[in-house]
Input
Amino acid sequence: MDDGYVVTPAGKGIHLNLAELWRYRRVMYFLAWRDVKVKYKQTFVGVGWSLLNPLLTILLFSVVFGLIVQVPSGDLPYPVFVYAGFLPWNALARVVAMSGTSLVTSANLLTKVYFPRMAIPLASMVMPTLDTLISFPLLLVMMLFFGITPGWQVISLPLFLVLGLAAAVGASLWLSSLYVRFRDVGQLIPFLLQLWMYASPVVYSTSLVPADWRWLYALNPMVPVLEGFRWGLFGTPLPLTGPQMLEGVITTALLLLTGLLYFRRAEDAFADVV
Amino acid sequence: MIEVSDLGKRYSLEALRSRTDTLRDHLGSRLRAGRPSDGGETIWALRHVSFEVLPGEVLGVIGPNGAGKSTLLKILARVTRPTEGSARVRGRAAALLEIGTGFNPELSGRENILLSGAILGMSRVEIERKFDAIVDFAETGPFLETPVKRYSSGMYVRLAFSVMAHMECNVLLVDEALAVGDAEFQRKCLSVMAAASREGRTLLVVSHDLSVVQTLCTRALLLDHGNIVVDGSVNDALERYASGMGGGAADILYFEDAPVLPAQLTCLRWRGDSSGGEGAVVCEYVVRQGGEDSVLSLEVRNAAEVVVLYTDDQDLAEPRKRAMGNHRAVARLPVHLLAPGEYLVSARLGNPGSSNAHEPSARLVFHRRDPGDGTRRFGPGGPGVLWAPTTWEYVEGATGIAQASSDRPKRI
Output
């Protein structure tokens, strides 16, 4: 970037140009650093809420779905079952909500300074991810309390986390770039996330879905992530077949790839329409 | 250096007018018409623009509002892409389009230096090396650990500008709109830019303030409606700007958003019957920080640049005018007192003590026409800046003079 540059009209082809994003990683780092700093400026309130929020949610879920509706959770106590689903889901939902609106809230950066635009949605994924990770020990405490120990399957956890991350990046790139152009997407995001949550095995298990329909259900990228997460932690049997797990992996890959391509196509107009 | 060849940028009018494109409308129109409703009317904000800026040169870009100055700057800064043509910037470029880019009010002065520096493209080593110089220049040393939301607007602007002023670059692209703040600070901004040009850097300055262009620039580019009108000496461009093109004035002016200002004009409009003696200036402004002691003032100049009328709302006992939000103020001017001719109105909104105005040279124009009733014989350009029917009385006989002189007090 020190030798200058040439500005030309937007070309026809699409170059992902991830090398440039890497050269500007410092910008990404500082944008993420800013989010984290601002969030934890009032340390007590920040960390306190990060723990209290999921705690209250699983309490609510345990009462409503565990005690009242009596959703079956196999051999597991319902609070542990629901928290193992809620933790990764909450990470995804928080990331998508924050990242999906990031370009619009950073409009002043888009119109005033140059760096690869993808740095903005990617950087804004960091703070919500950290914020949800803080409540991970809570799950370990609960497992300890109920005397649950993970088996050998625990080594697969990183794999499912990467899969969840890919789905989050794909959804974030799509929504953030759509939101720049269409201002009603902002209203759509919370609804979309709610819909997505009930279409995912967060408060219930995939085993409740009729076996004939599981192939369709498994197209949801979060289905293999959440079921895989539970399988990895508790070693309970997977309610999905191998090909069904693969389905979700394929839709995730598609979501990520189309997200990258759409973002690249849309970003040239960001400064003009934001 | 900067090389620009046949640069053009087209905007769709639809997108400029209604800023709210919604997915619902988009899908709706796609269903109705079979294809999205984009396209339509377009406008070239910039067209067939070619020029070069050599190292050591300071190019001032001037022109009325909407001439394409900002679009040119945005393309050169890579914020937006051109529709046609190309621009090449050789060497390390720094684009200063806005004061405080990347600043966050919650973070401290120190944290904002790091953040803003990184966003503007400074390396870690560069920021570390320049850190003390940045703090010294901004004169905010004791408040380094204070969140910048507690800074006065003057301190905020000084710190933000200081980060920008310490960027290492060969090519500097500057929007003069960032020279906000008090007179002392503006002088500082100018001296930084002057120093940059002495060091042989390439400078491109977009400016509304013609006096800045005159003192700083070695060459000037006059834009109008997206085209280059003059590319030559500063004097040529300024002369042409002042004579043709209505002096960069219109009967309605919109101002670009400058979110750092606690209070800012958004629109200035002439309303009135220009041939008669009635006329008013409608000022629309936004107050972003309540309680600021801002004063709205108007200056009316004639063609010879003489201020013939000054007025402000300092004495107006109206507490609402400083409350947060959008305001409209109407100033009725005694146009019937002015000689026929063209007048320029410039407005300022700022603290009485400082020159915290913006776009000081963006002006509204109105014409005071000859009423045409034969009461004025000289017509436009006649002597005198004021004109109003004067009553004459003739006194017959010489005795009146003698009497008058005898009435005078005696001086011995």
Summary: The first strand of chain A starts at residue 4 and ends at 7.
